[in-house]
Amino acid sequence: MVCLVSRTGRELQRYNNLGCRQVVGCIPYRYKKGSDGNNSNELEILVISSQKGQAMMFPKGGWELDESVEEAASRESLEEAGVRGNVECKLGKWTFISKRYGKCYEGHMFPLLVQEQLELWPEKNVRRRIWMSAAEAREVCKHLWMKEALDVLIERLKSPQQQKKEDLLPCFPI
């Protein structure tokens, strides 16, 4: 059973030693099903709309004091995109200034290999979710730092012979 309410408030938010709010997100992905019902090699990326507009992005939000970074990534994917899966090893960390608030943020991004897509989720009524190709996702994503994270994911998935063994394993299963 899924809780149909998103976490709210900022009293448990994490900040780094420079005072930047720490946020965490996932790039949900899967392999498209072929006509035979088996997974193909064609990658699909899930993007979501922002709450207050039509901008597209990947699920992300505050990392709270009572959870690990992987738990926060999994929670944000469930709350904002209605997907569950395996949070894989981190793609990287980016520092950026919010255009909306003019404040410093530290963003941690993870791949999420989607295992389940829910029909009901906490932010279903305020967000749209769309599966698309990696190229389309890169084109529509509004945040440069998220596009860079997607580039890291694509490179990681394209070159399995160059991947480290730990990159192939889930860091935090469902």
Automatic annotation (TrEMBL):
<feature type="domain" description="Nudix hydrolase">
    <location>
        <begin position="19"/>
        <end position="154"/>
    </location>
</feature>
<comment type="similarity">
    <text>Belongs to the Nudix hydrolase family.</text>
</comment>
<keyword id="KW-0464">Manganese</keyword>
<dbReference type="InterPro" id="IPR000086">
    <property type="entry name" value="NUDIX_hydrolase_dom"/>
</dbReference>
<dbReference type="GO" id="GO:0005737">
    <property type="term" value="C:cytoplasm"/>
</dbReference>
<dbReference type="InterPro" id="IPR015797">
    <property type="entry name" value="NUDIX_hydrolase-like_dom_sf"/>
</dbReference>
<dbReference type="Pfam" id="PF00293">
    <property type="entry name" value="NUDIX"/>
</dbReference>
<protein>
    <recommendedName>
        <fullName>Nudix hydrolase domain-containing protein</fullName>
    </recommendedName>
</protein>
<keyword id="KW-0460">Magnesium</keyword>
<dbReference type="GO" id="GO:0005634">
    <property type="term" value="C:nucleus"/>
</dbReference>
<keyword id="KW-0378">Hydrolase</keyword>
<dbReference type="InterPro" id="IPR020084">
    <property type="entry name" value="NUDIX_hydrolase_CS"/>
</dbReference>
<keyword id="KW-0479">Metal-binding</keyword>
<dbReference type="GO" id="GO:0046872">
    <property type="term" value="F:metal ion binding"/>
</dbReference>
<dbReference type="InterPro" id="IPR047198">
    <property type="entry name" value="DDP-like_NUDIX"/>
</dbReference>
<dbReference type="GO" id="GO:0016462">
    <property type="term" value="F:pyrophosphatase activity"/>
</dbReference>
